Amino acid sequence: MENEVLRAIRERRSVLRFKPVPVPEEKLEQVLEAGRWAPSYANSQPWTFIVVRDEKLKAGLGELVDRIALARRGKVAISGKGIGEAPLVIAVVVDPWRDPRHFVEAGAVAAQNMSLAAHSLGLATYWAGIYEAGGGRRSLESQVKRLLGVPREMHVIALLPLGVPAYEATSERVELAELVRHDRYEG
Ligand SMILES: Cc1cc2nc3c(=O)[nH]c(=O)nc-3n(C[C@H](O)[C@H](O)[C@H](O)COP(=O)(O)O)c2cc1C
Fold first, then answer.
1. Which residue has its alpha carbon closest to ligand 1 atom 4?
2. Which domain does 142 fall in, by range?
3. 102: burial class by Cβ within 10 Å (0-12, 13-18, 19+)?
4. Angle of helix 4-11 relative to helix 103-120, nearest 10 degrees?
5. The domain spanning residue 41 has which CATH number?
6. For the chain, which terminal residue's Cβ has fewer other Cβ atoms within 10 angstroms, N or C?
């Protein structure tokens, strides 16, 4: 039988448009709590969550992501849609000094916990891919870091625009039988 966790995992979808209504503070706190309780290597908890509500900053983030997405059209599937119009954006920042080997995974698992929590609370989000391994000063990640005042040595793993979904999103997955193998890769 499907329980609430399994239902949230199966029904969560990335949503790029939000209704112009605020996110209740208690729901925001529950979403952030879900990030706080994510697992991390040796419980290093290398993350900081920046809640961006400032209209100019949100618009700036949206423009940055869109501009880079446009420049790379066809190469990577990123878009900044919804970032400017979402009531708030959570930037998932990680500190490699606290976890030099697994900071990316730590940020990813916290982001996924938050997006599942958001869905379970009637909210929605999507993952705007920001992190660029080895990205230079002109990378999208560096520009996002400058805009948000994130120290150079840290990384922004994702931007999560958060709000009430304006539509019902759909996406499919490949069949489980195509993903699962037994004992060895080549059977
Ligand atoms: C690492 C990562 C980066 C992503 N970057 C973007 C992005 O920049 N823009 C976007 O619109 N969606 C982005 N997504 C969302 C994916 O496009 C989405 O999860 C995928 O199409 C499956 O759809 P679903 O989340 O609705 O099931 C990203 C997802 C992940 C995990």
1. 129
2. 24-165
3. middle
4. 100
5. 3.40.109.10
6. N
Check pocket membership of 18 for ligand 1, CB cut-off 6 A: no
Compute, in angstroms, the gap from residue 14 CA to the centroid of ligand 1.
7
Q: Which atom of ligand 1 is nearest to the CA of 80?
A: 9
> 183 C-alpha to center of ligand 1: Å?
30
pLDDT 10s digits, 52-70: 999 999 999 999 988 766 6
User: Does position 95 have pLDDT exceeding 80, yes or no?
Assistant: yes
Number of domains in the chain: 1
**Ligand 1 and 14: CB distance under 6 A:** yes
186 is a domain residue:
no
Q: Is the CB of 127 under 6 A from ligand 1?
A: yes
Q: What torsion do the CA atoms of 100, 105, 111, 115 make, to the nearest 10 degrees?
A: -170
Q: What's 182's DSSP letter?
A: S
Q: What is the dihedral of CA 116, 29, 89, 126, to 10 degrees?
A: 0
Could you tell me which residues are beta bridge partners of residue 30? none
pLDDT digits 0-9 by tens, 128-138:
988 988 888 88
